[in-house]
Write a structure and sequence with these properties.
Length: 234
């Protein structure tokens, strides 16, 4: 990996992927605000039956539509492949429901300047938990401790989808899980490759977003994933 100088960190080297499913209410605003931060923005519509794709196109960003729902992990991988094929160096991932502030993409770019040799940067909401619902805060802390142990490094907010990857790491994470457990597997893969995950403080935002996580199904997926990685390292 060639370390970037501060002068070489041109915004054209960065792109964003916004995975979206049934997000017609928020995706247009999120896409417009992201486009104000970066010149390269892609929304991956994961087989929505509403106007998600139309709202994203109206915002002026690129859109790829899956013909049927394939899962958040597959949507992210579609976006990563798209930008790597076009020579982008850093890909920012953020959610379509407004929970992540596009204006804070600059924090990730600043983090690269301080850690130019790192390949994965992860948002952390844990320094701003006052507005985080109590149950979600407790679950987040438990999951982060559990995943941190599996990764062999302290990761304050493993559940945050706001993150950034360098192109050198992307090929290794294109074979991960297909749904929400993919975001956890990405951290495990990066850690097994010896990458130190850099935490980037971000704002905690909760409004009227509706989680697409299925508590029982996705909890089973999560623990199955951890068991698989523990067996592989035994």
């Amino acid at each position: 990996m060639t370390e970037p100088s501060q002068a070489s960190l041109h915004l054209a080297r960065f792109a964003a992927v916004i995975p979206a499913y049934q997000e017609e209410k928020h995706v247009g605003e999120v896409a417009r605000r992201t486009l104000a931060q970066l010149p390269n923005v892609l929304v991956v519509d994961d087989g929505s039956s509403d106007a998600t794709a139309e709202r994203a196109r109206e915002a002026g960003v690129q859109v790829i539509t899956h013909p049927q729902n394939r899962g958040k992990g597959e949507s992210i991988k579609t976006g990563l492949r798209h930008w790597v094929a076009r020579g982008i160096d850093y890909v920012v991932l953020l959610d379509a429901d407004g929970q992540h502030l596009p204006e804070e993409i600059s924090r990730f770019i600043e983090a690269v300047k301080g850690e130019p040799e790192r390949q994965i940067f992860l948002g952390s909401r844990m320094s701003d938990v006052a507005t985080m619902p109590l149950v979600r805060r407790a679950v987040n802390r438990y999951m982060s401790r559990t995943i941190s142990r599996a990764c062999g490094q302290v990761i304050p907010d493993t559940q945050c989808g706001f993150r950034m990857l360098h192109r050198d790491l992307i090929p290794a994470v294109l074979s991960g899980a297909d749904r929400f457990d993919y975001e956890t597997e990405m951290l495990l893969i990066a850690s097994r490759k010896g990458e130190r995950i850099i935490s980037v403080p971000i704002t905690t935002v909760y409004s009227d977003e509706v989680s697409s996580i299925k508590p029982v199904r996705d909890t089973i997926r999560f623990f199955s994933l951890l068991r698989r990685y523990r067996r592989a390292s035994a």
